[in-house]
Q: What sequence folds into this?
């Protein structure tokens, strides 16, 4: 690697003991002959396969919803799809106008409504800047919503007041000092009809406008599905163009506007995660390749390994498209994780190849020796990592299963890609630029006396040689302490119940969230936090509401599951046949009183008097603006119910979400029919329950699977014991550190626990395998320790890139995985070699004494 070797060429180092005797080894030998003799042809075939894989991988979709993490067979997921199929054709877009002129905002809103309506379906279905039609419908029917006894009392008071005024005006009053009946002023009549001043101020003059008049909302119902991000982007673009063309600033120079709504929120979150995936992938690739260059200090080695891992990654995600067709919030970050792990096979192959080249061995024989000497330990490591990932397949949590399948597949695929691509890559590079030049002077100064790049393994060898017993005892003591902390950690319920700590940092999309809260607060739209429950028939709504409210009322005062239940039937008055005659009597008396000049508030009272043709109203008569949240795609009304949470930020507490979800996830009606609930609360609760049941199972399967792989690979009890002991030390250190740092487990960072078995064992495997060849732990650290540490650094840096994520859950995964990686590495390159050196020295001392 560092120019022409200073020592004479030596014979090619022998392959692993016994030579390639197995059928797999013989197959490797035949393949290697072809790779060495026809490298260009092999690379051409690989390029074709890789090109096809990249085309497939480019079609992967990103699912950002939590429901994509659960199995499709879950009742909550089935119900969510059912609700979405019947209601999700209408998404919301808010055009939020903010300015100083209340009148200017109204004029801008009025001009925007017809301009936006002209866009037509699917971009714009309905558009409105207020509820004037609703007010026009409800005001004259306000009395229908009053209680019947209260309405009867009002009629009696109106009759009494009318008679009193008639007597007074006719001079028939006897002058008795009886108390006068209540006055017929506007406020008293409206209050008796159930109309409060707060209701009137809710929508100033019928506009979606704030009480201070400085914010106005134009609400759009779009036919674009919230999950269709391409269509969502187009809808928002078209709406934005219309707003820009209307130019609301013409009506108020201080006016500013923005777009929000569930369509904008979904798109912004999707773009945030997509950008996050890209930035983390690029950062991870830069860090991984950077540390590889630091070790080898040769661009050609970095280039060769980058090609090999790039091929492996393209194959992995091409197969992912075939298997699943999508990524989710858990699997989307596997590019960096698999890249950091999968490059380890190239590192060990390259380290052995360069070791042979430095001894003067020609390129072809050096490639052959590297393959023969490294395929078994690297395949063992790949299989162990694949088993650790694959342990997640036994879980019910779909996010874990897909993570396990893709991760396990990625480990094997990257190993195959390494041993198919790296040998011909090295041969082609040797033909184009032979490895016989001297590196630049500044690199030689960095390399110092090392024959490799930066000597990562030498400090560890020096430390182990100085204090093997101390390192062994301290490492063992810390492992025992870690075991105790692990037990305490498990017993103390280590799960994270603050959901805000596993969501994305919304500062990057804070404006769209601010605007949607403004829009929902002003318009009063149901559904921002409320959960929709779908029934099959309208006659199921009343008993369902009664059952849900009974659960709420039966709960302790400090443990209420929800605040209220909303149905379209709430807008249909009761006892209408009895109320209509009373309202008509009241109207007649008020009209007569007006003619007598009794009431001076006629203009304020008139809107609340019923029309002459007042009839009972049903859900079919309600204005579209009221019925819209309860209207299905086919126009059916009244089969949807919303259940709203308690006030405050309580929905960020998983304890509350579990209680809320349990209150409506399943309800059996008196007729025996069963109604299932879904939505964010139930989906999250199901995720939580799946994690709690899957954690022990996945950890046990991962551990047993790793143990089996190691036992099959070494077929020697002592070597298996050495590897597993080092792994357990690393695992107990990891969980102990999580316990001390009070790190809580969530649906993402939990993955670090079972995966640590398969990936962390990689380093002990390579140390023990090399120890069997060399017989000297210190020599293993000097010659192979650097490559092992480099393998860990690439994996660690891949995890470290996750810490830069905008999602707090992904950040926690990165931190937990880094803790596991550091612990397993130190156990493999410090505690394990120290224990071996201590054991060797004790045996030598005993032998000397006995002789």
A:
């Amino acid at each position: 690697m560092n120019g022409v070797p200073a020592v004479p060429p030596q014979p090619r180092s022998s392959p692993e003991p016994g030579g390639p005797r197995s059928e797999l080894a013989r197959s490797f030998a035949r393949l290697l002959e072809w790779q060495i003799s026809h490298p260009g042809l092999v690379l051409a075939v690989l390029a074709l396969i890789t090109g096809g894989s990249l085309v497939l991988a480019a079609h992967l979709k990103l699912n950002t919803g939590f429901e994509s993490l659960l199995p499709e067979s879950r009742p909550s997921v089935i119900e969510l799809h059912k609700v979405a199929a019947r209601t999700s054709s209408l998404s919301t877009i808010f055009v939020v106008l903010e300015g100083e002129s209340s009148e200017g905002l109204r004029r801008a809103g009025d001009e925007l409504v017809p301009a936006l309506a002209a866009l037509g379906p699917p971009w714009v279905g309905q558009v409105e800047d207020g509820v004037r039609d609703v007010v026009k419908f409800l005001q004259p029917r306000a009395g229908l919503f009053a209680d019947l006894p209260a309405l009867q009392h009002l009629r009696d008071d109106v009759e009494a007041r009318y008679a009193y005024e008639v007597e007074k005006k006719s001079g028939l009053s006897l002058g008795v000092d009886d108390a006068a009946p209540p006055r017929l002023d506007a406020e008293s009549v409206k209050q008796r009809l159930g109309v409060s001043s707060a209701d009137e101020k809710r929508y100033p003059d019928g506009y979606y406008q704030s009480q201070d008049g400085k914010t106005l909302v134009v609400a759009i119902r779009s036919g674009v599905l919230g999950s269709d991000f391409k269509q969502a982007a187009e809808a928002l673009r078209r709406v934005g163009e219309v707003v820009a063309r209307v130019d609301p600033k013409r009506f108020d120079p201080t006016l500013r506007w923005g777009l929000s709504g569930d369509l904008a929120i979904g798109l912004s979150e999707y773009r945030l995660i997509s950008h996050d995936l890209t930035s983390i992938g690029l950062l991870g690739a830069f860090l991984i390749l950077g540390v590889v260059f630091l070790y080898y200090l040769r661009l050609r080695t970095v280039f060769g390994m980058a090609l090999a891992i790039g091929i492996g990654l393209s194959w992995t995600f091409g197969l992912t498209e075939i298997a699943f067709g999508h990524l989710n919030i858990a699997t989307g970050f596997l590019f960096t994780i698999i890249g950091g792990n999968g490059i380890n096979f190239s590192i060990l192959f390259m380290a052995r190849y360069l070791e042979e080249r430095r001894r003067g061995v020609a390129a072809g024989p050096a490639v052959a020796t590297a393959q023969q000497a490294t395929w078994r330990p690297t395949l063992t490591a790949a299989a162990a990592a694949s088993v650790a990932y694959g342990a997640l397949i036994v879980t019910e949590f779909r996010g874990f299963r897909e993570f396990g399948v893709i991760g396990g597949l990625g480990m094997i695929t990257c190993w195959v890609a390494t041993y198919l691509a790296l040998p011909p890559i090295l041969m082609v590079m040797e033909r184009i630029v032979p490895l016989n030049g001297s590196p630049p002077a500044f690199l030689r100064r960095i390399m110092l006396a090392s024959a490799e790049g930066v000597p990562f393994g030498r400090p560890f060898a020096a430390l182990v040689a100085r204090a093997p017993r101390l390192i062994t005892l301290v490492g063992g003591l810390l492992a025992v302490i870690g075991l105790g902390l692990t037990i305490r950690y498990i017993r103390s319920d280590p799960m994270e119940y603050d959901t805000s700590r596993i969501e994305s940092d919304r500062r990057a999309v804070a404006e769209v969230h601010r605007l949607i809260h403004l829009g929902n607060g002003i318009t009063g739209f149901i559904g921002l936090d409320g959960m929709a429950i779908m029934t099959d028939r309208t006659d199921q709504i009343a008993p369902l509401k009664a059952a849900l409210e009974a659960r709420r009322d039966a709960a302790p005062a400090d443990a209420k599951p929800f605040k209220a239940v909303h149905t379209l039937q709430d807008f249909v008055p009761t006892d209408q046949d009895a109320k209509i005659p009373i309202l008509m009597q009241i109207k007649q008396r008020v009209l007569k009183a007006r003619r007598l000049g009794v009431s001076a508030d006629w203009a304020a009272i008139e809107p609340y008097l019923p029309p002459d043709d007042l009839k009972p109203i049903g859900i079919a008569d309600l204005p579209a603006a009221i019925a819209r949240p309860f209207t299905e795609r086919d126009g059916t009304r009244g089969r949807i119910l919303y259940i709203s949470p308690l006030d405050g930020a309580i929905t960020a507490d998983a304890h509350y979400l579990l209680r809320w979800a349990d209150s409506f996830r399943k309800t059996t009606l008196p007729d025996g029919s069963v109604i299932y609930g879904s939505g964010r609360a139930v989906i999250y609760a199901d995720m939580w329950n799946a994690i709690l049941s899957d954690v022990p199972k996945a950890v046990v399967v991962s551990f047993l699977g790793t143990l089996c792989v190691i036992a099959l690979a070494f077929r020697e009890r002592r070597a298996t014991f050495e590897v597993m002991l080092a792994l357990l030390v690393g695992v107990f250190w990891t969980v102990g550190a999580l316990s001390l740092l009070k790190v809580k487990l969530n649906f993402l960072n939990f993955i670090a626990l079972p995966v640590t078995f398969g990936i962390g064992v990689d380093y002990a495997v390579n140390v023990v395998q090399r120890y069997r060849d060399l017989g000297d732990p210190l020599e293993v650290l000097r010659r192979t320790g650097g490559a092992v540490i480099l393998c860990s650094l690439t994996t660690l840096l891949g995890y470290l890139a996750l810490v830069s994520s905008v999602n707090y859950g992904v950040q926690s995964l990165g931190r937990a995985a880094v803790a596991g990686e550091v612990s397993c590495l130190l156990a493999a390159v410090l505690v394990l070699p120290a224990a071996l050196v201590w054991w060797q020295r004790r045996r030598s001392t005993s032998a000397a004494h006995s002789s």
Notes: The longest strand covers residues 91-98.
